[in-house]
Amino acid sequence: MEEYRIKGLSCAHCAAEIEKKIRSLEHGESATLNYNTGKLKIDEKVDLKQVEKILSEDGAFIEKTQAHHHEHEHSHHQGVNLKFLLIVSTALYFIAFFLEKQTNSFLVIGLYLIAMVISGYQTFLKGLKNLIKLKFNIDTLMTVALIGAISIGEWKEATVVAILFGLNEYLEGIGMEKARKSMEKLLEVAPKQATVLKDGIEKVVPIESLQVGDIVLVKPGEKIPSDGVVVEGKSSVNEAAITGESLPVEKENGETVFGGSINNEGILKIEITKSYEDSSLAKILHLVEEAQETKTPTELFINRFAKYYTPLIMIVAVLVMVIPPLFFGAEWNKWFYQGLAVLIVGCPCALILSSPIAIVSGITRNARNGILVKGGVFLEQLGKINTIAFDKTGTLTKGEPHVEKVTVYIDDQDEFYRIIGSIEKNSSHPLAKAIMKKVVETEVALHDPEEIETVSGQGIIALIQGKRYWVGNEKSISHLQITEKVKADIEKMKEEGLTLVLLADERQVMGLVGISDEIREESKSVIKALHQAGIQHTVMLTGDHQKTAEKVARKVGVTEYYANLLPEDKVEKVKELALKGKVAMIGDGINDAPALATADLGIAMGKGTDSAIETADIVLMQDHLGKLPSAIRTAKKVNRIIKLNISLALGLKLLALLLTIPGLLTLWIAILSDMGATILVTLISLTILWENKEHNVIN
C-alpha cells in the first residue's frame, strides 16, 4: 500500500465521496481516505493520474513530499487565498448595497454577481457537477439555493449566501486545521538526528540510520535520539514528551532512557537498544496518527444519517415551494423563496463536524499527558466505562518487595542488621535486595562470611566469625524450640499478609523481617479520584493469597477484590464483570494480556511488558495511575460535547424550519442558523484542548 498526504479536503462528507470514487477504480477497492489525518492509502497498482483527477474535481490534491514545510505553505496559502477572496467580495457587496439607491441597476447586479462568483465559485462548480449527476450533498444544496435566489431576482441575498458559505468553509477548515496542528505539534517531538561516537570520532547522522548497539553522545538541551541505556555520564532528563510527567528524572550508568526525552544538564553517552522505528516515541507517534483514522460508532452513524438526510431536506424544500401556492392560493414567489431557505437550513455541515474535531482534540489532549488512546472508538468507550478492574502487582503496588516490619529479639539491634546484612549482601534474590535496602539505612559495618550454603526451599546457612547462622522461612529454623512469643509474632505477621524472613543462631530466633509488596503512594488518591470521576466499581484482581489481597484492597479503597487468580481466572472474572457494566482492565504483565484483550477496554502501564502494551487499547506512559482520572474526565467531556454538538446542530435547524410555518424564514436566518451551528460546534470541540490545571494535581 502507498500512502499520500491529501490537502484541500473541504469536509468529511466530501472525503467519504472521494474515497468511494477511488474505490471504484481498478485495484482501488482497498483504498482509504481519512479526513481527520488527510491521509490516502491506496494499492500501488492504482493509476495515480485518475486518483489526481478525482481529487481535483473536489479541489483537493496530493501533496508532493517536499517535507512539511511545503505542505504547510500550501495549506497556509489556501487559507490566505480564501480569506483574501472573502474580504474582496464583502467589500464589493457593501459597495453594491450603497449604490443600489443611486445608480442603474445593471451595475449593482454586476457587482453582486462578481462578489458572488469570487466567494462562492468553487462551491458553485462542485454543486453543478453534482446536480448533473443527481448527487446530493452540501454543495448541491447551496448551488440550488443560489440559482433559485438569482432566478427570483434576490441578488442581495444570493450574494450573502455565497459570502457566508465561503466564510463557513474557511472557519471549518481552521477548526480542523487547529486540531490537526496541535496533533502535529506532538509529532514534532521526534529528534531529527543523532551524534554517534565511532572510534572516538563524533559524527552527526540522521535518526533513521541509528542501529542497535551504537553509542550516541547527548549534550545538555539535546533530545535523546532513541531508547537506550546510559553507559557514561549523569544528568536529569525531562521525559514529559513520553510520559506526560513534568518532573525531571535523574539518570546515571545502567539506567534506561526514552527517545524524544530531553537531556537537561550533564553529557550522557547512551548505548542504543532500539532502532528509532521501534522506540517508544516512534510507537507513540504511530499510534496517535493511527488513532485518528478509526471511525467511532457515533461518526459512522452521522455519516449514514447525512446520506439520507440531504435528499430528505430537498423533498421538504420542494413541498414547501409547491403546497401553499397549489392548495392555499399563496404567492409562488414567496414560497419559492421559503423553499430555498429550507434548503440552506438543511446543510449537514455542523452535524458532520460534531464528532471529528472533538475526537482529535481528546486524543491529542490525552497524548500530551502521556496517555495514548489507540483510536477514537476507545476514547468514546473510555467515557462510558463504569467498572475498572486492576491487576494488583505493578499496578496498584510497585511490584517490588520492601521491608514493612522488623521485630528483633536480641538486645543489640545493630548486631541483628550486621549479621543479616552480611549474609544477604551477595544474594540476588528479590527478598534479599529488600532486606539490604533496610540494612544500608542503618549504616552498620558488614562482614564477609567464611562459608555460605543455600538450602533450597528454606534459605541460607552461613558461618560468620566462627558462628553459624540461619536465614530463611520457618522451615529453616526447625532445629530450634520456638517460644510462644515468637510463635505469636509469626502468626500475626502472616495474618497481615507479610512474607517472613527469620534470622536465627544455634540457640534462638534473633529476629523476624516482614516483607510486602509496597503500595504505590498515589493508588489511594487515584481510586478516590476515579470514584469521583463517575466510576462506580473498582475491582482488584490478583494471583496473591487472600490475606495480602485483603490488606491492599483495604488500604487503597477498591470496592471489591478477588484473590488466588490464575491468568485464565482473570479472564473469567473480567467476563463476569462485563455482564454488569462496561469494563476497563488495567495491567502491566504478560499474564494480564489475555484479560486486557477480553475487557471492553484494555489499559496497559507504559513500563509494562510489550505484550501488554500491544494488546491494550490505551497505554499510560507513566509508570503509575496518576493521570488515569483526568483521561477519563477528558473522555467523558468528549462524549458530552459530541452529544451537545449533535443536539445544537439539529436543534438550530429545527428552530429555523419551524419559522417556515408562519412563512418567516429568510435566507439570512437560514444561513446564520447553519453557520452559527458550525462555528459553535467547532469552538466547543476545541475547548477540549484547554488544559484544566486543577485536575492534574495527582502526580
TrEMBL record:
List the catalysed reactions: Cd(2+)(in) + ATP + H2O = Cd(2+)(out) + ADP + phosphate + H(+)
The domain of life for this entry's organism is: Bacteria
Q: Where in the cell is it found?
A: Cell membrane
Q: Name one GO molecular function term.
A: P-type cadmium transporter activity
Q: How does it sit in the membrane?
A: Multi-pass membrane protein
Q: What sequence ranges are listed for the domain HMA?
A: 1-63
Query: Which Enzyme Commission numbers does its entry carry?
Result: 7.2.2.21
Please indicate if the UniProt record lists Plastid as a keyword.
no
Q: Which GO terms describe its cellular component?
A: plasma membrane
UniProt keyword NAD present: no
Ranges annotated as spanning the membrane: 80-99, 105-124, 308-329, 335-360, 641-661, 667-690
Sorted alphabetically, which keywords does the UniProt record give?
Answer: ATP-binding, Cadmium, Cell membrane, Ion transport, Membrane, Metal-binding, Nucleotide-binding, Phosphoprotein, Translocase, Transmembrane, Transmembrane helix, Transport
Belongs to which family? Belongs to the cation transport ATPase (P-type) (TC 3.A.3) family. Type IB subfamily.
Annotated protein name in UniProt:
Cd(2+)-exporting ATPase
Lineage runs: Bacteria, Bacillati, Bacillota, Bacilli, Bacillales
